[in-house]
Design brief:
Residues 25-50 are annotated as: Disordered. Keywords: Signal. Residues 55-415 form the Serpin domain. It holds the Pfam family Serpin. The chain has 424 residues and is of the alpha+beta class. It has two domains: 4-43 and 222-314 and 380-419, Alpha-1-antitrypsin, domain 1 (Roll); 73-214 and 316-364, Antithrombin, subunit I, domain 2 (Antithrombin, Chain I, domain 2). It has helices at 4-25, 35-38, 49-62, 74-86, 90-99, 108-126, 149-159, 171-185, 284-288, 292-301, 323-328; strands at residues 71-72, 131-141, 161-165, 204-215, 222-223, 229-232, 236-239, 241-253, 258-264, 270-277, 303-312, 314-321, 354-366, 386-389, 394-400, 406-412, 418-419. Strands 1, 5, 8, 9, 10, 11, 14, 15 and 16 form a nine-stranded mixed sheet that branches. A five-stranded mixed sheet has the order 3-2-4-13-12, with helices on both faces. A hairpin with a 5-residue loop joins strand 9 and strand 10. Helix 3 (49-62) crosses helix 4 and helix 4 (74-86) packs antiparallel against helix 7. The termini are close together. The relative contact order is 0.23. The protein binds 2-acetamido-2-deoxy-beta-D-glucopyranose (NAG) (5 copies). One 2-acetamido-2-deoxy-beta-D-glucopyranose (NAG) is lined by residues 124, 127-128, 133-135.
Length: 424
Amino acid sequence: MLPRVFVCFLISLPVLLALGSTAKSSKKSPAAPAAAAAAPPRPPPPNDPSWALGLRLYQALRSDSSSVNTLLSPLLVASSLGALSGGSAGTTASQLQDLLKTPSLTKPGAQAGEALSRALKSFTKANGTSFRLRSSSAVFSKQAPAVNQAFVKDSKARFSLQHKPLGKGDSKADLKQLHSWAKAGLGGLESAPLVSEIQAKAGALIVANALHFKGLWEREFNQEGADRRTFLGKKYTKVVMMHRAGLFRFHEDIENMVQVLEVTLSGGKASMVLLMPFHVENLSRLEKLLTVERLSKWLDKTNVTSVSISLPKANITSTLSLKKQLSALGLTDAWDQKVADFSGVSDKSKGKLHLGGVLHWASLELAAEAGKGSADLEEEHIEKPKLFYADHPFIIFVRDNTSGALLLMAALDHAEGEALHDEL
Ligand SMILES: *[C@@H]1O[C@H](CO)[C@@H](O)[C@H](O)[C@H]1NC(C)=O
Ligand SMILES: *[C@@H]1O[C@H](CO)[C@@H](O)[C@H](O)[C@H]1NC(C)=O
Ligand SMILES: *[C@@H]1O[C@H](CO)[C@@H](O)[C@H](O)[C@H]1NC(C)=O
Ligand SMILES: *[C@@H]1O[C@H](CO)[C@@H](O)[C@H](O)[C@H]1NC(C)=O
Ligand SMILES: *[C@@H]1O[C@H](CO)[C@@H](O)[C@H](O)[C@H]1NC(C)=O
């Protein structure tokens, strides 16, 4: 534990900075809160496959205690699997559909596909307004029989899933091809190598998603450039903290000691939800609390509150192979050459076509930048702000305002920065 005095010291400067901006913004007569902040809370829709799959996949990834800075796009994974489910039959299809099932969908396959397709389009439309997004999805095939053009066309139109054949080379060449595709998908960012090898046998289908996301705030954050703060993550590091006081949807769950904050992104087409334990601790306890029901409750309880936010300027990047986790969630037949049934992908597929991998590359940038139009916003009247001081691990969700779908989910366990040794 940190000595109390030190904690106070950590908090005091940003508070002063934030209060500085408070004083400035309350000089004028109080104005109504920004429309987006006042919009009614929208809990995750109970029939949304991206939340249902996202939370389960996240938990499966985090059950490996070595996972650090987990980041995934539930919407991209779910829609690519949704496309594959349309090309499959038998138990392969039912297991894929079960992954996307939610309690209130009566016809899981078709309805989940519809919901995902709509959400993808809605997010793509918000690109450039609420965030800058790059995203690509592809299904690679290795020495596969001729792929059904109706499947290719449908997956492209509804799920932006491209079909790409892998070259004739060995697994090293395959990996190289996949990596350079991911690099292009991330806008040129180098990504960490895959931990597990990909051995694409003849007939393998490899699903790949790549996404780069940078949220644009309604108003810019102040950056405390020269004076760095300590982020108390896996390692203690020095980071740049960004500050802003304003009106945000906020809730404190006293019993579970969790702060819930929802920050609307520029233009209101998407928002970022942050969950953080009251005190410095790793995320294990909070993660055990995460269910769609509890999240709905938390988001329902948020109300517009004056909050002084401090966030580390940070990037989270991840490279994931999801085979183990998806298998644990019940997707078993698709990987087995003898059992898998992708007859909708290719008529001559029986005994050959199978799933060879589900790969995921993602990066998330937390920066100070606001979107267009921040100058035209009304003044905010901020009073006695609550503190949301993110100097220790927290969880991030990015959700679409219109469809409610979950674009991103991330854990920030560690912020890159100069390491601090033995100071505490
Ligand atoms: C998180 O903290 C708890 C309690 O301090 C500890 O038992 C657990 O091993 C930690 N988990 C990780 C992933 O570090
Ligand atoms: C978002 O807009 C940028 C810039 O216009 C573009 O490069 C990018 O491809 C778009 N992303 C998507 C997912 O359409
Ligand atoms: C966000 O969703 C609410 C509720 O459906 C809607 O009233 C509002 O217009 C939406 N905002 C934007 C910017 O789309
Ligand atoms: C916001 O929620 C808190 C706690 O749930 C409550 O005490 C407060 O009165 C609420 N404020 C408004 C304006 O509804
Ligand atoms: C995050 O990455 C972007 C480029 O992708 C870079 O400009 C920025 O400085 C990085 N931020 C941090 C805190 O490292």
